[in-house]
Amino acid sequence: MTDGVSPLIGLSLNCRGMKCPRPIIEMARHIGEVRIGALVELLADDPAAGPDLAAWCRMRGQTLIAADSPRFLVRRDS
Amino acid sequence: MRGLRFCRFVRRFLGAGKRYFRGVADPVSEVFLDSSSSEPLLPAARQAWIDAQQAGWGDPVRLHRPGRLAAQALDQAREVVAAAVRARPDEVIFTASQTHSNQAAVAGLALGRRRIGSRIVTTAIDHSSILAAAAAAGSHIAVEVDHEGHVELGRWAAAVATEGTAAACIQVANHEVGTLQLYAEASEACLRAEVPLVLDATTALGRIDFGDVSGWSVLTGWAGAFGGPASVGVLVIKKTGRWRAPYPTDDYQGGRWPGVPDVPAIYAAAVALDCWLQSGRVVGERQHDLIDRLRTGIVQRVPDVDVAGDPVRRVPHLLTFSVLYVDGETLTLELDKAGFAVASGSACSASSEHPSHVLAAMGALTHGNVRVGLTWTTTAAEIDRFLDVLPPMVTRIRATVGAS
Fold this sequence. Notes:
Chain A has 78 residues and is α+β, with helices and mostly antiparallel strands. Chain A has two helices and four strands, in the order E-H-E-H-E-E. In chain A, strands 1-2-4-3 form a four-stranded mixed beta sheet, with helices on one face.
């Protein structure tokens, strides 16, 4: 376990202080770096991050595993 | 010397001012697509406003001729509204805005029912003025909606029937996404639970015939939504005895809204509403088709767009969509530069750090949001031009943020 990232989490993106849609853009740019089934952690404190990440997952066929602002977990499904 | 310098400063300042005002007065090819914020004043309403300034400016409680003329104009305005919502003319009141009407509706029922309880039930996507009034009244329950904005009826009925509920509020149609709410069913649940209902008809009044729903106690509306003066709110209070004025009142409007009414503006509002009632059906049908054309065109021509709201059961003139990876403020300003005035529910693009509570509650994408509201005069050519302008604009913005 390095940098507090659990072995299940393939990637952690620190987007705190960024305004939407930047955290969602970062998620879209980097989710391809993990294998299908792996988790990506997103740290984002913009008030729109929660609803927008959920909408992005719905539009892009990914799964929002946990949403506890400012910490979100997405599983790469496609 | 000092005087001369000052003169130069004044000249320069005035010069700049003149350039500025000349710029503002320039005829721009602006296509106004923000009727969700306010429909531009209809020409007939403008003329009626001017005419009523001549003949209806008096104080309507006075017995002299100007007073009587104003009282007549006010009576006619009440009759137009009463006929539109199937109420009695003496149940119609004019306030100063949609916000005032909604606040008076909720606070008045909360006061009249304070022995029952202080809970106000709304949906999660009601207008912010309803949500604020509900929170101020006591405890507030906001019932969830589905992805298209329809209230969860089972939860609604349960919330309304819970002991201690003073009143409930529901919209005829949502002001951002246009979805027609399940207001008839929601109204039935309130009747069964004997809970008075505020029907917020702001977005629908004049555009949708909802007169068959009679289960409401108080109805609210706003002239700015249908091309009347923005200074006129509509408040219709059924004489059920459940509403009490939550503020000090006077002799005006039956002791339900204080202050001398602005009769010329109210008369203009009634004329605007009458325009919709008399000849708005054709306009509504055209708008319904244009929104279908816009919805289909956007989905076909712009990848990764989230279109919100019920595509069929909706008011004719609204469409809300969100463009993935694009910032709403940038998109709104770029569209403005291209000659299109639209609204946005994204954070920062209006006056708020927070995104639209309507979009968030529906699970819709909140960034990159554009809200199109067609006006009485919107043409197919304007919509087609919008459809031509939007796709390359989105491509360009996405490229600049590294999301293409």
